[in-house]
UniProtKB/TrEMBL annotation:
Gene: rlmD
Top-rank EC class of the record's enzyme: transferase
Residues the entry annotates as binding S-adenosyl-L-methionine: Q311, F340, N345, E361, D387, D409
The protein, known as: 23S rRNA (uracil(1939)-C(5))-methyltransferase RlmD
Binding residue positions for [4Fe-4S] cluster: C109, C115, C118, C195
Length: 480
C-alpha cells in the first residue's frame, strides 16, 4: 500500500503479464480452435475481396472460410498470419503486402497501427467516404429497405476536426508514466505526444499536459483527462481518483499558467473522489458554448458543460442540422417532437424556424441545460424529462404532443422501443428524421418503421469521424 500512486522502479518483464506479449498473440484466447493445417499453409497468401463495415479486409481461405484482415484493402494480394480462429471466420494481420491498392495512402499519423483511434488512415479520404456510404447502403438493403438512388455525403476537407477527447493516464509495470489513447480492442494505453485529428486548440495542450503529469507524485491517482473545445473556450477536466495535496498544487500552478497565456480561454478543473466525485475549478469556470450558424438563420448559442454530449466535429454537425431542417421544413406553429434532444442541437433550430417544439431527454441535468439554452436564445421550448426506453413513454408523448414531425437522435443502442411505438401508433407524425451514430441499429429501427407504413425517402451519410470507420447517418421517412 505504501507504493500506491508512486512511480514503481523498473522491473524485468516476466513474459506473462501481458505487457510484453505480441499484439496478435491469441494463443490463450477462448475463441482459439485447433488449426486446420491446410488453411494454415494456404492462408499465407490471399487476395482481399472487399471491406467489412469496420474497415477490415475480407477474403476467403482455400477452404471457403471467411477471414478478416487488419489494414488490408480490396484487390491487394497479401501474406497473412491468422491470430484468432473462430468457428465461422478467422481474424488475421498482414505479414507482407505484395502490391498496393490505389486506395492506399501513407497514414498521416505516426501512431497509426498502435493507437486505436483512427483505423482508416491507410485509405485515401475519398476511399474512406465511399466505404462509409457503401456500408450504410448494404446495412439498409439487408433489412429489405428500398433505397433512394442517391445517398448524400456531408463532409468537410478538414482533418484536425476533433473538439473533444479523453486522454488516459497510466503507470506501467516498468514505472513509466503513459499519457495517451487506448490501443484497438485493448485496455493497453499508447503513449502519444501529438494527435493528428485534434483541433489546434486541444492539440496545443498535449505537450504541457504531459509535462505536468510527468511531474506528479501520484500519477496513479489520475484516471483520465477530458478535453473539450468550444467557441466560448476550452476546458480541461482531470479525473483525480484520490486527493493529493502536492499534486493539487501542481495542477493549480498549471491552471494559473494557462490563464496567463495570451490565448487564454482554457479552464482547468479537478474532478476528485471515487464514488461521489466533486468538480472544483482551479481557475475561472469555463464559459463553454457552441455557436450553431445555419444558412438563412441567425446564429444560435448552445451552452455546454464538461461531460455533456457534444458532436466531435463542429462543421459537420452544422451541415447535419441544416440537412434535417431542410428535410422537415418546420413551419410556424407546426408541432414537432424531438426525442433524445441533448442540449438542443436540433431543438433550437426547429424552434427558431417557428415550430412548436417538445424536446425530450432522459437525464434531468440535460433537460435543464436544454431549457437554459432555449431561454438564452429567446425561444419557447417545452423541455421534458422521460425515459424513452420505458414501456408506454413514447405512446404518452405522441398523445400529448400530437406531433406533425419528429426527430430521433438516440445513442448507439438505437431507438427500438420508440420506433415500435411509432409504427403502431394510430396518430403519428407524418415525417420522421432519424439521426444515428450506428448504421446497424438504424437499419433495424428503420425496418420497423417501414413495416408499420412509413416510406424511406432520403438518406445522407455524415463523415463526422474522419479516418475512422464510424459515421453519422440521417434518414427521412414519410408516413404513407
Amino acid at each position: 500500500m505504501a507504493m500506491l500512486g508512486k512511480k514503481r522502479p523498473p522491473r524485468r518483464a516476466s513474459g506473462v503479464s501481458g505487457l510484453s506479449r505480441a499484439p496478435h498473440d491469441a494463443t490463450h484466447s477462448r475463441d482459439r480452435q485447433t488449426p486446420n493445417a491446410q488453411d494454415d499453409a494456404a492462408a499465407q497468401r490471399i487476395t482481399v475481396e472487399r471491406l467489412a463495415h469496420d474497415g477490415r479486409g475480407v477474403a476467403r481461405l482455400p477452404s471457403g472460410k471467411t477471414v478478416f484482415v487488419e489494414r488490408a484493402l480490396p484487390g491487394e494480394p497479401v501474406e497473412i498470419a491468422v491470430h484468432r480462429t473462430r468457428k465461422r471466420f478467422d481474424e488475421a494481420h498482414v505479414r507482407q503486402r505484395l502490391s498496393d491498392s490505389p486506395l492506399r495512402q501513407t497514414p498521416p499519423c505516426a501512431y497509426f497501427g498502435r493507437c486505436g483511434g483512427c483505423d482508416l488512415q491507410h485509405m485515401t479520404l475519398a476511399a474512406q467516404r465511399m466505404h462509409k456510404i457503401a456500408a450504410v447502403r448494404e446495412l439498409l438493403a439487408r433489412q429489405g429497405l428500398e433505397l433512394p438512388d442517391d445517398i448524400a455525403l456531408l463532409a468537410t476537407p478538414a482533418e484536425d476536426y476533433r473538439r473533444r477527447a479523453r486522454l488516459g493516464v497510466n503507470v506501467d509495470g516498468q514505472g513509466r508514466v503513459l499519457v495517451g489513447f487506448r490501443a484497438a480492442g485493448s485496455q493497453r494505453l499508447v503513449d502519444i505526444e501529438r494527435c493528428h485529428v485534434l483541433v489546434p486548440e486541444l492539440a496545443a495542450l498535449l505537450a504541457p499536459l504531459r509535462e505536468v503529469i510527468h511531474t506528479l507524485d501520484a500519477p496513479r491517482h489520475v484516471g483520465h483527462v477530458e478535453l473539450v473545445a468550444t467557441d466560448g473556450g476550452c476546458a480541461v477536466t482531470v479525473r483525480q481518483l484520490k486527493p493529493h495535496a502536492g499534486d493539487t498544487a501542481r495542477w493549480q500552478a498549471f491552471a494559473e499558467r494557462l490563464a496567463a497565456e495570451p490565448s487564454g480561454g482554457v479552464a482547468l478543473g479537478l474532478l476528485q473522489g471515487r464514488d461521489t466525485p466533486r468538480l472544483d475549478w482551479l481557475s475561472a469556470p469555463p464559459a463553454l458554448a457552441e455557436t450553431l450558424a445555419l444558412p438563412g438563420s441567425a446564429p444560435l448559442t448552445l451552452g455546454v458543460a464538461p461531460g455533456d454530449f457534444l458532436q466531435a466535429n463542429a462543421a459537420v454537425n452544422a451541415q447535419m442540422v441544416a440537412r434535417v431542417m431542410a428535410w422537415l421544413t418546420p413551419a410556424n406553429g407546426e408541432r414537432l417532437l424531438d426525442l433524445f434532444a441533448g442540449i438542443g442541437n436540433f431543438t433550437l433550430p426547429a424552434a427558431a424556424a417557428g415550430a412548436d417544439v417538445t424536446a425530450v431527454e432522459g437525464h434531468p441535468a440535460m433537460v435543464e441545460r436544454l431549457a437554459d439554452n432555449a431561454r438564452r436564445n429567446g425561444l419557447d421550448v417545452h423541455a421534458v424529462q422521460a425515459d424513452l426506453n420505458a414501456a408506454g413513454a413514447v405512446e404518452a408523448l405522441l398523445e400529448t404532443a400530437a406531433p406533425e414531425a419528429l426527430i430521433l437522435d438516440p445513442p448507439r443502442a438505437g431507438a427500438e422501443t420508440a420506433c415500435r411505438a411509432l409504427a403502431a401508433a394510430p396518430r403519428r407524425p407524418a415525417r420522421i428524421a432519424y439521426v444515428s451514430c450506428d448504421p446497424a441499429t438504424l437499419a433495424r429501427d428503420a425496418a420497423q418503421l417501414v413495416a408499420g407504413g412509413y416510406r424511406l425517402q432520403r438518406v445522407a451519410v455524415a463523415d463526422m469521424f474522419v479516418h475512422t470507420a464510424h459515421m453519422e447517418t440521417l434518414l427521412l421517412l414519410q408516413d404513407e
